[in-house]
Design brief:
heterotrimer; A mainly alpha (227); B alpha/beta (285); C mainly alpha (289); B: 285 residues; alpha/beta; seven-stranded mixed beta sheet; four-stranded antiparallel beta sheet; 34% helix; disordered N terminus; C: 289 residues; mainly alpha; 2 domains; 0% strand
């Protein structure tokens, strides 16, 4: 039956969605700052990071309050716990965005090492994963969540590929070393973002079924598809 | 665990300086600044030679839900009944201290207990619609026996009260049936409608759900949540989750003393007193 | 110490136990039936001896002088109803209000005295009531009267009605009183409108039982209403009643009067039986129990 405090869970969900959108926007802006060499945008990203920090605290408080006062039923309890974990992941995504923005500022002082093609591709892949994972908060879609986990491998591959490429740059032209290292870190950040998206997707599977799929074959890159 | 025989520090934060809580829920928003309904200080009560309440001091907000919790025999029901002088039905009771409702001393010599009870209605643990009366008669009995005969007014109060009690849709076509023909939960809502019909300022509820199944309980809780907007509701409950769900403020009584009184979220999440913490978690009592 | 074997009876012991258990149950059934037997005996005799004398004139005519055949007990039937009405007029208000006082107002100490007195009064032999009222109303006014008979029966009803009223009021759950008082309804209205109304069926039942009880009384009427063979036009005159008429006829020497006495007893029994049946019907659904 519908309860008067159901609205609180709706608020909780929408806070999470808001946090997710904010994190995605932060990453997107940081990459734009990198590609277009706009330090202003990068500074904006760094300044806006507290918003995510504040949202994480709010979501955690609300989760604790809900657990304490509302005697949540099992599915609500999973939502609240998953929400807490997801807010932590999103906060880390925000930290990666800040780190990308900082490196974008450094890189903007020098000419680009090479045209930015792989990095935007990786980012759009990672952000798509993040969005798909977050969509599950609104509408649980287990297949989508499993797909997110499996796509993590593609981002990892891109990261490795970029790594090799940048390594060869550094060997051939030592003056590119500092720029290449920055780009390697950026690539690593993006790879981390995809990992956080994967974490959230795994949580979503737990949310829908109460089944913990972390560290199992089901979601491993080479694992068989879910029955 | 704390030694329970020494129910000591009475932590009663003054209402005005209540700490701001993370208030994002609609329930929490509608609470400050608040008007005080009951202003009680130094209130003690004796049954013959036995003292049941010791020096209780509490300010209960208007148009909010206040929950009173505590183990059996802690004096919470006694306290509730003292709020509309129902305890006087037990011979040999005696009180001391100050008890004011919106500034008016309810125990002043000139105050008629019947008038107090018209202002401070009560709903009991066991639903008790009058068995000889129909649903409509049950709702209107308080008005009729207090001298209201205007048919149009009675008709209007009947519908209003039943709507407020979330019962109108279920009974509007069977108003002539005996009140006792309803289900347990409906009977309890009928009793709430009956209490609301005389337009009290305060509604006291003495474990209103303890005889009901979970679904009927949920309905009563929804109703209490709706009543918050226009009434001062004080509810005694043994169900901690219920207190946490429906109340804005919670008072914890133990051995006749008010141990702690604060925002419900504070009482449940960060109480000052270890006894309160243990009690709300079901560790004792 | 007991040994385990005592708790695990042998097959023979078990059979014996079953037998004794069945035998005891059977014995008790016989006793229960024995309780019911007299009522059938009474009805059987009354109908066998009295039914033949029951006719229309029995209900419409006055008794004929001795030696003449026919006649009826019309005056006695009307007299019984008159006396019952007078008894109820005294016994019901005093008894009900006394019962309300006991249940709702009296202190424990006063109540225990009142209850004790009422119980003693219930045990006072009916002939003693007759003598008391004889001294109270017949001697001073120098005449037997319907008043005296009504008062005697009314006095007998008071403790009966009072105790049953108290008992049914106490059965009304305290919750109804509290609910009414919590609505700001004054106490006297709570008691009259809520409590008494809730217990009304029980109170009426108690009144009917008391009336059935006094309807058959003969002894108190011998010294008070006395009885006669005519229509009584004034309540200050003697009045007849069925039990009196039956007593007179049954102790007479005439066969016709004996038959009429049987018929009168049948009518009286019929009246009391119908009162009891009414009580059963009324008390069938006492919703507050």
């Amino acid at each position: 039956m519908k309860r008067f405090f159901d609205a609180e869970l709706e608020t909780f969900r929408s806070q999470l969605i808001l946090m997710g959108e904010t994190a995605i926007e932060q990453v997107r802006t940081a990459i734009q700052a990198l590609v277009e060499a706009k330090t202003g945008l990068a500074e904006q990203v760094i300044a806006a990071d507290d918003r995510l920090d504040r949202l994480e605290v709010e979501i955690d408080n609300e989760a604790v309050r809900y657990m304490n006062l509302r005697a949540p039923i099992a599915s609500e309890l999973r939502l609240v716990i998953v929400g807490m974990k997801a807010s932590h992941d999103l906060e880390r995504v925000g930290d990666e965005a800040t780190s990308i923005a900082k490196r974008a500022i450094k890189l903007s002082a020098e000419p680009p090492l090479k045209p930015y093609i792989d990095i935007p591709r990786m980012v759009s892949m990672a952000l798509e994963m993040l969005r798909d994972a977050l969509d599950c908060f609104l509408q649980v879609d287990e297949a989508k969540a499993v797909a997110v986990c499996k796509r993590d491998a593609e981002v990892d591959n891109l990261n490795r590929q970029l790594y090799r490429e940048l390594t060869s740059f550094m060997i051939e032209r030592p003056e590119t070393i500092s720029r290449a290292i920055e780009l390697m870190f950026i690539s690593k950040s993006i790879e981390r973002i995809a990992d956080h998206a994967t974490n959230i997707a795994e949580e979503m599977i737990y949310l829908s079924q109460g089944k913990d799929v972390r560290h199992t074959e089901e979601v491993k890159k080479d694992g068989k598809p879910l029955a | 665990m704390a030694d329970l025989s020494q129910a000591k520090p009475v932590v009663t934060r003054p209402v005005a300086s209540a700490p701001p809580m993370a208030p994002r829920t609609p329930a929490a928003i509608a609470k400050e600044p608040m008007e005080v309904a009951f202003d009680i200080s130094g209130f003690s009560l004796w049954y013959g030679a036995n003292q049941a309440l010791f020096d209780v001091g509490i300010q209960i907000p208007a148009r909010a839900v206040t929950a009173i919790i505590g183990p059996s025999g802690c004096g919470k029901s006694t306290f509730l009944r003292a709020l509309n002088r129902m305890h006087e039905l037990t011979p040999g009771t005696r009180i001391a201290g100050r008890l004011r409702l919106f500034g008016e001393d309810l125990y002043a010599a000139a105050v008629d207990p019947a008038v107090v009870r018209r202002r401070v209605g009560m709903v009991f643990q066991k639903s008790n619609p009058f068995p000889t009366m129909s649903i409509a008669e049950n709702v209107l009995v308080g008005l009729r026996l207090n001298g209201v005969n205007d048919r149009a007014l009675l008709r209007q109060r009947l519908e209003e009260s039943l709507r407020m009690a979330a019962l109108w849709d279920e009974v509007k076509d069977i108003l002539g049936r005996p009140g006792s023909s309803l289900s347990g939960g409906q009977q309890q809502r009928l009793c709430i409608a009956r209490a609301l019909a005389v337009q009290p300022e305060v509604l006291l509820m003495d474990e209103p759900c303890s005889a009901l199944d979970p679904l009927a309980t949920a309905k009563i809780e929804e109703l209490i949540n709706d009543l918050r907007a226009s009434f001062t509701v004080i509810i005694v409950t043994h169900n901690m989750q219920q207190a946490a769900r429906v109340s804005n403020r919670t008072a914890f009584f133990y051995l006749g003393r008010l141990v702690e009184y604060d925002e419900t979220s504070t009482i449940f999440m960060n109480p000052s007193n270890p006894q309160t913490e243990a009690y709300v978690a079901g560790r004792f009592g | 110490m007991t040994t385990p074997s005592q708790f695990q009876p042998t097959a023979r012991r078990h059979a014996w136990r079953k037998f004794t258990s069945g035998a005891m149950a059977g014995l008790m059934l016989v006793c229960a039936v024995a309780v019911m037997a007299p009522i059938f005996l009474v009805l059987f005799f009354l109908v066998r001896e009295g039914a033949s004398s029951l006719d229309w004139s029995f209900f419409t005519q006055l008794p004929k002088p001795s030696g003449e055949l026919g006649g009826g007990m019309a005056n006695a039937i009307v007299g019984t109803f008159t006396l019952l009405a007078m008894a109820a007029a005294i016994g019901v208000p005093v008894g009900v209000m006394g019962g309300v006082y006991l249940a709702e107002y009296g202190s424990d100490r006063a109540n225990s005295w009142i209850r004790f007195t009422a119980d003693v009064l219930n045990g006072v032999p009916s002939i003693v009531w007759g003598m008391v009222v004889y001294g109270l109303l017949v001697v001073p006014f120098k005449t037997f009267s319907a008043y005296a008979g009504g008062v005697a029966l009314g006095f007998m009803m008071i403790p009966l009605v009072m105790r049953t009223t108290e008992e049914v009021l106490v059965l009304v759950p305290q919750g109804y009183r509290e609910a009414a008082l919590a609505l700001g309804i004054p106490r006297w209205k709570t008691i009259t409108v809520i409590v008494v109304r809730t217990a009304l069926k029980g109170i009426v039942t108690g009144i009917l039982i008391a009336m059935a009880r006094v309807a058959g009384e003969t002894a108190p009427l011998l010294f008070t209403a006395l009885g006669n063979n005519f229509w009584s036009h004034r309540l200050s005159e003697p009045i007849s009643a069925l039990p009196l008429q039956i007593f007179t006829y049954a102790t007479s020497a005439y066969d016709d009067w004996h038959r009429q006495a049987w018929a009168g007893a049948l009518v009286l029994m019929g009246m009391i039986l119908s009162l009891n049946i009414l009580v059963r019907v009324l008390s069938r659904d006492r919703s507050f129990k």
